[in-house]
Structures are given as C-alpha cells and as structure tokens.
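G., before I forget:
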Amino acid sequence: NRQIQLAARPHGAPVDSDFKLAESAIPKIKDGEVLLRTIYLSLDPYMRGRMSASESYAVPLEIGEPMLGGTVSRVEASQNNEFKVGEWVLSFAGWQDYVVSTGEGLTKLGDNPVKPSYALGIMGMPGFTAYMGLLDIGKPKAGDTLVVAAATGPVGSTVGQIGKIKGCHVVGVAGGAEKCQYAVDVLGFDACIDHKADDFAEQLAAACPKGIDIYFENVGGKVFDGVMPLLNTGARIPLCGLVSQYNLTEANAGPDRLSQLMGLILVKRITVRGFIIFDDYASEYPTFAKDMTTWLAQGKIKYREQLVDGLENAPQAFMGLLEGENFGKLVIRIGDD
Ligand code: NDP
C-alpha cells in the first residue's frame, strides 16, 4: 500500500521534502469492514491549511499522517453486508492506494457510474460550494454584475455559469490568456480578465461599467484590491477562499487598509459572509444535486477536469494547484477502474 504522508510543515509554498512516499502491506479487514481501493483522488486548495499547525475550522494533520482528501474508490474486499465487491463509493481515503473502512461516511455511487470522478468536482464538494455560496449568500438577480476569480477552476467556473443561468453580467478573473479565452468562449462568461496583467484593475473596471453587485471571493490579494473600489451599495461577498494567501509567511507589504475596508462595508452596506460548505449546508445537498444534474444534462453547465496519472505525482500537482498551474478540476488517477 503506497501512501503519501506529511513529512514536514511547509514554510510558504510546499516543497518536495514536505511529502514522503511510504509503502506498507495492504491492510487486512475484520468483520464489518470493507477494503477500499482508490481510483480517483481529489486535490483541493484547503489541503494546504491542514499541512500547517495553525488553528482553523478543522484539525491539522500530524507529521507522518497520510495527506487527506476526498476519493472515489472501489470495494476490493468486504465483510460488511451493506457493501459488495466492485461497488463504487465516494470516500475520504486520502493520498493512498488502499484504506479500511467500517462503511461509515461512505456514499454509494452504484455499480457502474458514468463519470465517477464527477463526484469529486461538479457533482461534489466544489460544485456544491459554488451553488450554495452564490445562491444563498450572493443572491443573484438578473442584471447584477458578478465577478469571480479562479474562473476556470471547479468552484469559479460553476459560480460564473450559474450566474449566467440567473441572468447576471459575469466577469471572470483568471491567470493567463488561455484560461480567459476558455471562460468566455466555452463557459459563456461576458468577459474574463487576466490578473497577471499590469493594468488588471483598469481592465476589470472597464468590464464592470455598472460596478460590482456580487464578488464571489476565491483568491483575495491583488484581485480583491481591484474589486474594492468597484463594489456597489448593497453588494454581497460570499467569502469562499483566499488561495493567493495560503502560502504567505508574513503580512502583505503596504499600509494597513483594514479601517478603509471597514468604512467601505459600512457606507456601502456590504454583506461579507464566510462559509464552510458541509458545516453550513450539508442538508441542502439533494437540492443542489437535482439542479446540477438537470443543468449538466441540458448542457447549461460545462465542466473541465485535469486528470494526472499516478499517486507519486500528487505532490507536484498539488504544489502547482496553489500557483494556478492546473486548468480545471485537479484529479489524480491512482488505480485502474
Ligand atoms: P482551483 O482549481 O480554481 O485552484 C485554485 C486557483 O486559484 C488556481 O488554479 C489559480 O487560478 C488561482 N490562484 C492561485 N493563486 C492565485 C493568485 N495569487 N491570484 C489569483 N488567483 C490565484 O480551486 P477550487 O475551485 O477548488 O477552489 C477555489 C477556492 O474555493 C479556493 O480558495 C478554495 O479554498 C475555496 N473553497 C472553499 C470551500 C468552502 O467551503 N469555503 C470549499 C471548496 C473550495 P488562475 O490561474 O486562474 O489564477
């Protein structure tokens, strides 16, 4: 059983030596247990937070523990009447080939799911995050201007496309011309601005002539700086993630602008609300799944995956995810189906 463990806590961006590939025998199961073989492993930005010791909404990993993560797995052996060999399940096996489970917390995906890896993306955690954050906190209305960064990732691409379904003027922010072109041509955004451009703030302002009503916050940093002066009275900010900050080792340079931000929130009566998807919205999952299944079938939502083969390539792919090297939902294919 190959396993990628947390070898050291990263200082800034993770490096190779923060991860360790360990091998051991395939675990044995007891009565009531199942042995799961990982087929797909989801890589997500939140994993960076778990590598650090600092306090968060979840307990950090210990050094030597396997890296955590959502997986799509198959039942390899079973001594549990609820699960039969060959069945597909959504699980949380982490970065490893095999894991033993009591069956608790597993979601059945059937004997022959059409797109099993979608359970880690558009039909799973990121898609659900986009749906709830936008609809419950962003409260989109036809004609609103919606801005979302990490626009071609699983969260941002879904936010923007649901925004279009709701009649918004959607402006994406992404890293590089290729991603921006994809956001407009394939995802149907009205515009997409490259955050690496020197005149990013000017381009963003030009793409939002009526200001910004909803800013779905995925990244923070320079993108938020460009957004701030454009926010309209009554704007809503679903605070989903701050990926540009995850590798920071010290505060951003420059003057403290907290009082300026608080003043803006006050005079413009802006709603900023953080959320952690399953902690806050677990009971809404069936509503999301119904809508998303319909939209996918109707072709109203497009979804892009980046599949990387091999557990051993997970650390490199994860380091790239935090730097924008992925193009679409990053999934590691670990085993043959
Ligand atoms: P993505 O696949 O979109 O990957 C992250 C992307 O962030 C990169 O591809 C890159 O895209 C962008 N990025 C990285 N650094 C910067 C930077 N300095 N400035 C601007 N953009 C940057 O990730 P997800 O769709 O999975 O997640 C998006 C966000 O949602 C994350 O912040 C994540 O933590 C959050 N999240 C929150 C949840 C919650 O419950 N609150 C649940 C799930 C996700 P590009 O090249 O386009 O810049």
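The chain has a mean pLDDT of 96. The radius of gyration is 21 Å.

More on Monday.
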